Structures are given as structure tokens and as C-alpha cells.
Amino acid sequence: MKIDDIRVFVPCKNYQQSCAFYQALGFNVEQASADLSIATSGECSLFLQRYYNQEFAENLMLQVCVLNINEAFDIISKLTNFDIRFEGIKQELWGKVIYLWGPSGELLHVTEFN
């Protein structure tokens, strides 16, 4: 089996808010059906679904790799209209990371590698 791509389905506590959140992060969000949207940035994409399971959402982690962590932090720190939380940039041995909890409780590791 040759795998071409893997995409995650992100559960949305508030579907419209999650779509707006990912758009504010820089994703292009297009509706695929009444209950599903595709969020795309470059060659990367994920699904936003009108489905919510709290335990799953709060245990979901995504790594979002960026080229400039400072630019990412600037964008994240201006997201005031969403029920989110984030921590400042942390230096790790392998690079830098911002921990960002999305509106459904999903944890995004916004990462710039060395």
C-alpha cells in the first residue's frame, strides 16, 4: 500500500467558530457538505466536522509546522474573538513551539524546527 496523504477530522464544538478560527490562522476553509469543511494551507489540509465529542476533542493534538514562529505568535496573539488559549514561544532542543488550544479543546503544537 502506498499512502499519498493523511488528513485528520477535527471535531467542532461550535462548527462556525471553528471554521472562522482556522481561517484566522491562515487556512482557506471551504464547505464540502452541510456538516464538513476542508481547511487548506498550501499542500496541507484537514477536515472540520459538525460533530463533537469532548473526550476526543480534548485529547486531539496536531502539529502545525511553520517557517517563522514569531510571525505565527503575532497572528495567534491577535485572535481575541475565539474561546482559545495559548502559551508563549518555548525553546526546545529541536526548535521552537507555541501550544495553542483551539475552540473545541484540540491542542495545536505550532512548531518551527531548527
Which key phrases capture this entry?
39% strand; 4-stranded mixed sheet; 3 helices; single chain; 5-stranded mixed sheet; 114 residues; alpha+beta
Report the uncertain regions: none
Distance N terminus to C terminus?
Answer: 32 Å
Globally, the shape reads: globular
Give the helices and strands as they follow along the chain.
EHEEEHEHEEEE
Structure report:
The chain is of the alpha+beta class and 114 residues long. It is 20% helix and 39% strand. The longest helix has 10 residues, at 15-24. It is globular, with a radius of gyration of 14 Å. The chain starts with 8 loop residues before the first strand and ends with a strand. The model has no long low-confidence stretch (mean pLDDT 97).
List the helices and strands and how they pair.
Blueprint: E1 9-11, H1 15-24, E2 28-33, E3 36-41, E4 44-49, H2 54-57, E5 61-65, H3 69-77, E6 85-86, E7 90-92, E8 95-101, E9 107-113
Parallel strand pairs: 1-4, 5-9
Antiparallel strand pairs: 2-3, 3-4, 6-8, 7-8, 8-9
Q: Care to give the gist of this entry?
A:
The protein contains 3 helices and 9 strands, in the order βαβββαβαββββ. The protein is α+β, with helices and mostly antiparallel strands and 114 residues long.
